[in-house]
Amino acid sequence: MKETPRLNINKSLALFDHACTLVPGGVLGARKPTDFINGEYPVFLESGKGCRLIDVDGNEFVDFLCGYGPIILGYREEEVDRAVYDQVSGKGFCFTLTQQFQNRLAEKIHELVPSAEMSIFLKTGSDATTASIRIARAHTGRLKVMRCGYHGWHDWCVEMKGGIPPKFFEDVFEFQYNRLDQLEQLMAEHGSDTAAIIMTPFGHPNHQEMQIPAPGFLEGVKEIARKYGAVLIYDEIRTGFRVSMGGAQKYYGVTPDISVLGKAIANGYPISVVTGKKEIMMAASHKLFISSTFFPNSDAFVAALKTIEILERDEVLEDIWQKGETFMTQIQQAIDTHDVGAKLTGIPPMFYITFDKDPEGTYKAKRTDFYTQLIRKGFFFTPFHHAYISLRHTRADLDLAMTAIDESLAFLKAKYHG
Predict the structure, then answer these.
(1) What is the pLDDT of residues 111-149, one digit of tens each?
(2) Domains of the chain
């Protein structure tokens, strides 16, 4: 099978070169060219609509990254944007005091999310996870934290430790998803001084296969938290309002003490939530300080309320699950047909195609070739992060993507096993 021609991304690359003279690294974080495939993916985007993106060179892509997760409906979702525009233009959104949308959103979250009794609102996932740890420490009077999963860029949890004194993270200990034995060992040593166990209820470790909970794993973690009096926190930044309206905790039937929510709740507008049991959350009222000029801005509250309304009214998550189940079945069939070491993990709303590691490291070349073919064909997946499905992915879009995936796997078969 012939290799797909390379995209013209000259303008994107020129903008990046210029950006490197203005911004450290050109762009920040997980949007650097090296976090995709350098020289193959665009660096700058121009516009988006529905499930499609257009870059600054005019290339169009069916997008499966969804802004790293916030886009649950689609880009430029008119009903959401109109609600925000009406609020901003009609009444304003940034004031010294809070607007009434805080109460309405807190009530809605209480209605939907099993752990939600009281809520506080912030802007980013890192804001929310960090606030949840501060609340747990203030409530328990303890110091140590057990963590499982990615929880943001703040000092206590970021993987890259540059610029961070060790004392800021020396009381945080990591255990792996589905390894209850690791948590038991850590808690046997530190349990009496453990304030919180924070984890993703669905396993999506960075750059690795996704994992569903093994039988008894979530229940076992909760039992350990109860045994030692630690606050159990679910990081549902990715899974909230995507796996189900009540998050992964609702889907898997295990309720934590505190949950953190974000991303899909507002279809791209910046808002995050810490929500949980009243007796624990009340620490935020008098034992600690959490504040920002922009936390009360009502534009994102309005977007969240409208997004949730659409999710419920149009049964969006049911639609995503149905489309995703069919899509994953087709992907698995293609993987079985071509047999190049590809592996599919995840659940219908969020899934990942990886490659089995081998001693020679050929899997890295296969991964690069596979995702290179996909981006050249106009399908925006990434080698180092799982994919998402949104409401605006039509079955026709998924059929086109399936053809591209099948052709890309066939390309690998011919190149590496021909």
Answers:
(1) 999 999 999 999 999 999 999 999 999 999 999 999 999
(2) 10-75+316-417 (3.90.1150.10), 78-313 (3.40.640.10)
